[in-house]
Fold this protein.
Amino acid sequence: MPPDESTSNGSTHLSPDSKGGVQYWGPAIAVSLTTFIVVINASLMNVAIPTMVDEFDTTVTVIQGAVALYSLVIAALILPAGTLPSRYSRRRVMAIALLVYAGGTLVAAISWNTTILYIGWSFIEGSAAAVIFPLTHTELRVSYESDDRAKAFGLLAGVSGIGGTLGPIIGGALTTYASWRWGFALQLIGVGVILFFVRYMSPKPLSETRSSPDRGGTVLSIVGSTSLVTGFLLSGKYGWLVERRPFVVVEIQFNPFGTSPAIWFLGLGLLAFAAFVQYERRLQRAEKSPLVPLNVLTNRPFLSGVITYNIRSIISAGFFFIFPVYLQAVLGYTAFETGLALLPYSLASILLSTFSTGWRKYISPKTLIQVGIVCMGFGLVLLYEQTGPGQTISRMAIPVALVGAGVGLILGQITNMTMSAIPTADSAEASGVLNVSYSIGYSLGTAVVGSYFLGQFYGSVVDGVLRAEHVTVSAEQRNDLVLALEDAAETATEASQQHFLNQLTPTQRQLLEGIFETAMFDAQRATLLLLVLFVLLLLIASSFLPRQIPGDDERTDNRESPPDSTRETSEPAVED
C-alpha cells in the first residue's frame, strides 16, 4: 500500500514533492480510466445491435431492451450506491465494483442467448456502473483541492469524451472485422490496468462511523428514478399524454382513459421523489441518517449546477441521437466513418475540458460556462444552415468542433463547481444526486429529441407521398399512416431503407428515395432548431450559477453541524 496521510474524513493529503507523481494522481487516473471503459462499453453495444440481432436470431426491440434495461438498473441504484463511500473504504468499493463489472463483461462476451446477455450486460454491468459513476466524482472531490481538483475533473471530462468518440470507431471495426464479443473481452484488460491505480485511493470511508442504511429512502429513490426513466423511454413510441398506440404487457392492455402509459410512470416518479424529500426531512429531524442530507437538497449553488448539468446532458443526448442517424441514413456513412466525422467534436471537447481548468484565474468559471453554451448554440445553427445534399465531412468540421468546444468549456468547470459547493463529508451523497440527474436528463434528451426527430421524419415521408399522389386526408388519418409506417419498418437507417425500396417498382423506388432524403433533411433541420431552444434554456439556467467555484475564496465551514455529528468537513458549501 502506498504511503499516505489521510484525514479523518478520508481525504488524502500528500507532501508538495509528491504532487507530480503517480501516487498523487493515481486516484484521478483510476476513475478517469474507469469512466473511459464504461463509456466505451455503451458505445460498443449501440454499434453492434444489427449484428447481434442476426447472431441471436432475434429482433431489434429485444436487443434495444437490453440497452434500456441497462439504463434502468443504473438509474435505480445510482443514488443508494452513491452513499457507499461514506460507510466503506473508497478503495475497496471501487475494487469490488470493478471486479463485478469485469464479471458482467465476461458473461456478456460469452453469452449464447439474449437471456444471458441481459444478465451479464444489463444487470451485472449495470449494477457495477451504478456504483462506479458517483464514486468517480466523490473521489476527485475529496482527493484534490483548488487547481488540482479542477485539473482532475477536466481530465475526467476529456477521457470521457475520448471514450465517446473511440467507442463507435472501435466497435464498428471489431464488429465488422472480428466480433462484437471482442469489444467486451478487451475491457477485461482495461479493468486489470485500472486496479493497479486503484491502490492509490484512500482506504478510509468518508465517515468515521457507519450509519444505519436508509431503507425507506432507498426504496423511494429506486421507485422514483426507475419510473421517470421508464416514462421517458416509453414516451417516444406511446406518446406523452394521449395514447399513440396500445400499450400491451403480457396480453394486458394498459391505456387508462385513453392515456399513454408514459404519463402514469412520470407521475409515479414525481410523486415518489416528492415523498422521498419529505421522508428525508423527517429522518433528519429525528437525528437519523438520511440517504441524502437536507443541506445537499437545499444548497443553491449545488442545485443550480445540477440543473445546468442536467440540461446539458439533454442536449448532448439529443445531438448524439440525431447526428449519427443523419450521417448514416442520408450521407451513407458507416459506423467507422461516423466516428471520424465526430472527431472534431471530441478533439475540441477534450482540449477545452482539459486545458480550460486553469483559466478561472483570469475569467470567471460562470463566464467560461456561458461562453461554452454560446459556442454550442452557434455550432448547431451552422449545422442547420449547412444541412443539405452538398454537406461533407470537411464542411461540418468547424460547426461540429464548435459544439464540442462548447461542451468542453462547460464540462471543464461545471462538475468541479457543482461538487465544490458541497462539504467533503457529503460529497458521496451529492455525487449520487448529480449522477441521477444526469441519467434522467440523458433519458429525457433521448426521448424528447429522438421522438421529435423520428416524428418529423415519418410525418414528412407521409406528407411527401400524399402530395405526390395528390391525396388529401384528415389529421387523424395522417396520424394513422405515420404510425403504420413506423410499425412497418425502421426506415430511419440506410439498410432498412434499401430493403424497403427494393420491394418496389423502379418508378415507386425513385419517388420514395427522393421523399426519404427530403424527409430526413427536414427532420434534421427541425430537430437542430429544437436543440437550439434547449441551448437558450441552458443559458438561462446558467445565470443562476455562482460566479466563482464555491470554496475557492473562503475556507471556513459556514454550515452548523449537530454537536454529536460524526461527519467532519474539510471545505464549506458557500452559498451564492
About this structure: The chain has three domains: 21-206, 215-290, 300-552.
